[in-house]
Each structure stands twice: as C-alpha cells, then as structure tokens.
Amino acid sequence: MAEFEFNEHHQNEVINYMRFARSKMVLRLKTIDSCFEELKDSRLVEETFTVDEVKEMLDGLQAVVRGEVEMELINTAHTNVLLLRQLFSQAEKFYLRLQSDISELENRELLEQVAEFEKTDFKTAKINQETSKPKLLAPLNEGGVAELLNKEIARLQEENDKLKSRLRTLESQAMSALDERTKAERALKDLQKVQGEHQLAAHSQELSSLEDTVAALREDYERSLSAKSASQKDLQENLISAKHELLRVQEQLLLAEKELDKKFQQTAAYRNMKEILTKKNEQIKEIRKRLQRYEPNE
C-alpha cells in the first residue's frame, strides 16, 4: 500500500480491520441467503401462484432483506465510531488533535486502490501476532510524536529545576526574615519591660489624681442635684399657691358679676325696658294672628 504511505505496522492494522469487516459481511450475506432459502422452502411449494401471492411473497422478502441490510449498515457505522474512538483516545493522551476529511471517503481513485489492495496484498500479507492482540493501538517509539514528547518533557524538567532553585532561594530569604523578626520582637519586649517599670509609678500617681478628681466631681454633682431638687420643690409649691389664688379670684369675679346683674335688674330703666319689650312681643303676636286670618296659606 505504497499509495497510502503506510508503514508495516499500520498496514497490518488495516489488514486486521478489513478482515474483521469481511467476516461481518460474509455473516450478513449468509443471513440474506438464508432468507431466500427459507422463502423457497416455506412458500414455493405449489406449481402456480397468483399475482397477489407473488407480490405478497416479494414484499415479505423485501422487508426481511431490507431489515438485515439496514442492521448491517448501522452496525458498520457504529463499529467505525468505536475505531475512531480508539484512535482519538490515543491521540488525546499525547495532546494531539486528529482531523478527518469526509469528502475523501467517496474518492473513487482511493476506493479502487483499496479494492486492489484487498485482491492482492490482503490475501498474501502476514500479520504479526504481537501487533494484532492488543485492544488499543500502541504508540511506536520512533520519531514524530515521541520526539516532541521528549522535548516537552525535557523543557518541563528544566523549568521544574528552575522553579525548585527559585523556591530554595525564597525559603532561605524567608528564614532570614523570620530570624530578624524574632530578634526584633525580643528586643521590643525587653524595651517595653524597661519602659513599663518606669511608667508604672507615673501611671499609679496619675490614676490616683484621676480618682480624686472624679470624687470631687461626684460631690459637686450631688450638691447641685440637692439644690436642684429643693428649687424644684419650691417651684411646685409656688405653682400650687398661684392656682389657688387664681381660683379664688375667679370665684370673686363670678360673685361680683351676679351682684351687678342683680342690682341692674332692680333699676327703673331695666323695668321700663322690660315692659316695653313685653308690649312689643304682644303686638307682634297680634299682628301674626291677623296675618294668618287674611293669608292662612302663607
């Protein structure tokens, strides 16, 4: 298969798959032949048949053969998918992306080359048993992908060594910084201890002074609170007295008003005014009676 540019290993793999496909094809053809034989043995027992009977037999045979062919085509498509799955899985392990050209599957020249290979090389090719047993394709340790992988591994190893060296340097710097921090913290504690002894007395004196100040402020507050309470009590008493005085004055004003009204009613002018009003009221009543007599509807 020089036209396909296959090496010996890949050529053997193609032969294995073609043998598998041929065995499946032969098995399916035998099944189709058995369908015809069954029709002959079960239905073709009479000498003459009507058109409808022949049509019925052919329709039944067509359905059976169609089902067998359809099942074989579907099975072949699924088998090809499983084969592609093996190839793609192996390629992904090596971080490769395979591509396929669907249009090449109908290339007549290539199909004729495959048919020619099947007639000649396929019959005489010798398959190596060791390469035909594994279920998954094994990568060959020769150039190409292996070389790229070796270069990538070497690059990653070199990068890893650089990272390790950088990490050791950072760890050394971190340890030095940690030692310096420990020393600084120890010196700070010693300084705080010395300063604390000197400041303790000053703090005690300041605290005592603050306590005296607070006591004096509390005493002033209590005195002011007592004075405020006494002042509030005086204000309440004055308010009560003022309310009583107000009530007394209102009562006097009411009595004076009644007395004044009584005196006014006893005067001659009041009596004359009252008589005049009484006469006017009687005149008004008389006029209303007259009006009702002449105009009773109004």
From TrEMBL:
Main location: cytoplasm
Keyword Coiled coil: yes
Coiled coil in keyword set: yes
Domain of life: Eukaryota
Keywords: Coiled coil, Cytoplasm
GO cellular component annotations of the record: cytoplasm
Protein's cellular compartments: Cytoplasm
Gene Ontology process terms (BP): negative regulation of protein localization to cilium
Coiled coil region boundaries: 146-290
Pfam families named among the record's database cross-references: Leu_zip
UniProt family annotation: Belongs to the LZTFL1 family.
Known partners and oligomeric status: Self-associates. Interacts with BBS9; the interaction mediates the association of LZTL1 with the BBsome complex and regulates BBSome ciliary trafficking.
Entry function: Regulates ciliary localization of the BBSome complex. Together with the BBSome complex, controls SMO ciliary trafficking and contributes to the sonic hedgehog (SHH) pathway regulation. May play a role in neurite outgrowth. May have tumor suppressor function.
Protein name listed in UniProt: Leucine zipper transcription factor-like protein 1
Provenance organism: Etheostoma spectabile (orangethroat darter)
